[in-house]
Amino acid sequence: xxxxxxxxxxxxxxxxxxxxxLLSACGDPAPGEGVEQRPMHEPMPEIVSLDQxxxxxxIPTVDLGTMHAxxxxxxxxAGPLCFFAYTAGSPPVLAVQNAENGTGRGVIKVHGxxxxxQQDAAPDYHGMGExxxxxxxxxxxxxxxxxxxxxxxxxxxxxxAADAIFTLEQGLKVGYRGWYRCRGSSS
Length: 187
Hints:
Strand order of the largest sheet: 4-3-2-1-8-7-6-5
Oligomer: single chain
Strand content: 25-35%
Structural class: alpha+beta
Number of domains: 1
Low-confidence stretches: none
Largest sheet: 8 strands, antiparallel
């Protein structure tokens, strides 16, 4: 019987020792904890031609990249804009601005580089009965509102389901279902 009592006392003592060793390390900060560091930001992408943007990775893996407001403003400036995004809450992968002469300029991001696009018609909701087509030397992005959308009752600022088709003359054609919205005075 004394043998069992002795083992019974050793087990809680060993457990208590292990717990106290573990807890003594809790007072030390984790590596890097408490160090004031500013978050690293990637450099602002440069604006290049489509040929330059495509010179890096393989064509079959090309997708439109999401853009931040500063990247869009760098290319298109401020003003009324329309956007296509993969989801209602995600950043845009296409941004289009109305020019004063009624034509549109757009921007996409390919392999981390901004590529300017041109369009012959205004990109707001008024012309959405027909697809919006933007082009840049060898690339085309075509946006069409989803077939179930009531084109006669479009409201500026509201998002609508849309399809975008990104085509490269090198042989790539990719389609996306996403969201299209316009903001600004011309929408």
